[in-house]
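Job type: complex structure
Entries:
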Amino acid sequence: MLPRRKRSHGPRLGVGLALLASILVISVGTPWSARAAEDNEAPKAAVPDAPQVEDTDKPKDKSLLAQTPADAAVAKKNAGGDEAFYQKWQFWAVTGGIVVGVVALIFGGKALYHSANGGDVRPCNPSFLTCFGQGN
Amino acid sequence: MKLFRFLRPVPLLALVLGGLASGCDTYHYYDIDVKFMSPVSETQVSVMKLCLIDVSGAASDEVVLPCPPANFPDMGTFEYSTFADSGPITFTFNGFYEAPKSSTNQCTSNMTMLTASSQITQTGTITVSDFNTTNCPLMVSGSSP
């Protein structure tokens, strides 16, 4: 007994594809088919007008509307600008500097004034009858 | 930087403070010893109830010393401080029989004069060598006949 031959679908598939290609070539290439395509188009007058509020300048290219790194930086800067002045570290740095400066100026000024006026008089010798004059 | 704009006046402030400091005063001290010398006796000194030191000349001041003096013949030393650093400065010891002071109850008046200079401490001595017994009679003890 001869072994059963395996059936091959290759020739049938090739014929099918060739037939489909022929139909497509005929339907696209003939003038009547093009006319039919033109006839199927809707009349231009039938296209509804765009509403007035529509932004006609809006670019069709979506890539132009995508955010760029520069846009992100500007947005971040604008977001930072909404902070109150007391929420900024610069405000507290300047305020702290002013407070420290004023306190140092007061104490330093007093010390300097005292020093400029002779400073402290030397202590009185306990064996003296008394000590008097300026600084006492 | 805009942040540190408030620091701009600092050099000017330092200049002003430095100028103030450059004109500073310095204390000068005068340690004066008061001594009694013959013919002034301890009995005479003991009748004084008001002892004053009068400062005149380069400085002006007055102070009361303990009276009558606890020590004899060296009453003790007092110290006078002043910023004066030039000119004559005179210390006068005036003893009075009682307060208030007046020319009619003054027992004694002696002085010493020093010259104020850059020297920080100067010493001097007031020697009390006269006593007015008319203004300051001795206290008589005992019972009268």
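Summary: The first helix of chain B runs from residue 10 to 22. The first strand of chain B starts at residue 28 and ends at 36.
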